[in-house]
Amino acid sequence: MQIASRKPAEVAAARMGPLAKLPVFLDLSGKRVVLAGCTPPAVWKAELVAAAGAHVEIYAPELSDEMAELMQRGVAPGTFVHHARAWADDIFADAALALCAAEDDMEAEAFWSAARKAGVLVNVIDRGRFCQFQLGSIVNRSPVVIAISTDGAAPIMAQAIRRRIETLLPPSLSAWGAIAKRLRSAVNERLAVGAQRRAFWERLSERAFGPPPGEHGEADAVGLIAEVGATASTREGRVTMVGAGPGDAELLTLKALRALQSADVILFDDLVSDEVLELARREAKRLLVGKRGKRASCAQGDINELMIGLARQGKHVVRLKSGDPMIFGRAGEELAELAEAGIEVSIVPGISAGIAMASALGVSLTHRDHAHSVRFVTGHARNGELPADVDWRGLADPQTTLLFYMSGHTAPSIARRLMENGLDSATPVVVARGVTRPGEVRWHGTLAGMAEAPIVDSHPLPVLIGIGRVFEDARAQAVDGPLSTRVVLSSQPGSRIKATA
Q: Is 269 tagged catalytic?
């Protein structure tokens, strides 16, 4: 059967979705901010705007202990002054922001109206309908500042997100950010707009996630400007082969994420999920070069020529493959062509679908009580059928765990050949379609029933088959254990089909 060929197709980057609020970073250095009230939330707001350099004027007949302590301690680079009176309409002149800890809705509405009449941005603390702006949770690595907002819906969620981001960003990012700020003028003077400047900032950013800059950090960064200036204009492009994993974007490695964020062009397969592509640099050109069994596919030669041509234009090309590129990803052919063309290549491994399925099932593929080896086997050859040279007698070893990839069409033949070569027909089997993706479906049964598995069909998502005694517990849990968050089917006698959303 001859399969139609198709050409690589450019795919538009995802457009910006609706925003509940537009995040804006406001320069308050030396600006006047008025604050009415001394409640604990007001104290926090006063400290926050003072940390941004504001001159904070507090209007309250008396100071609370917390506000008095804050003013005595001070917050650089901001300043504080206390006006021992209630707020009035005359306080808003020349103010950049107006904040109020109102006692009730009547005071909130009055403050809101007076501030708006004066043309001042206003926030009445904890009263959303009287706020023109919000002050979200903040991750402070100044000059690197990250703000998180849930549009007032779930402040505790924003705090949880902040805590997670805090663990990802090293404290030394602040020092690197300060170096970047001081060097910006030098970079603009000495490096050309476009590839040169971007090459410098990418390399400096890589350092920012490593050790602290140390005593000679800034001098080294200055040297990097000269190095990039001497080489970037003539530097040939490169290819990074990246494993996208089975679909769940959270399974990407940090190195894969950095590659996606630095790409000029991304050549991706049909099976790469939208969630993974959404993490790529928005300016990167996206080209679909899908190769699918029994479907129209891009010719491998066209893909090779495209990678080489783009790299020779000085582009950073990311070749994004589902799963791990070195497991049935035809990486060998592409690597050989790139090497012959003299193109620099690096490889970022990904989580293969078989490993992801085993993890989701809680199964050790090499459990010492059941298996002494694991084998990854392709479920189809170039013609879409089983390869003719498979060692079926070797595969039928009961002490081996088998993982058959791209095997939906050939599942009946796989079961028959294994049983013909001595593998017990009662051997546990797991068949999964769309591993880690929304709507993933799993079937649990035996080798004898595998040919009749209801998910072995022509569905566009790939089918993965796990065969071996290590899957016995997973098979039992599919019938007797707690409901899965995915659809689970079972062929055990007397079992019931379980499905949950």
A: yes
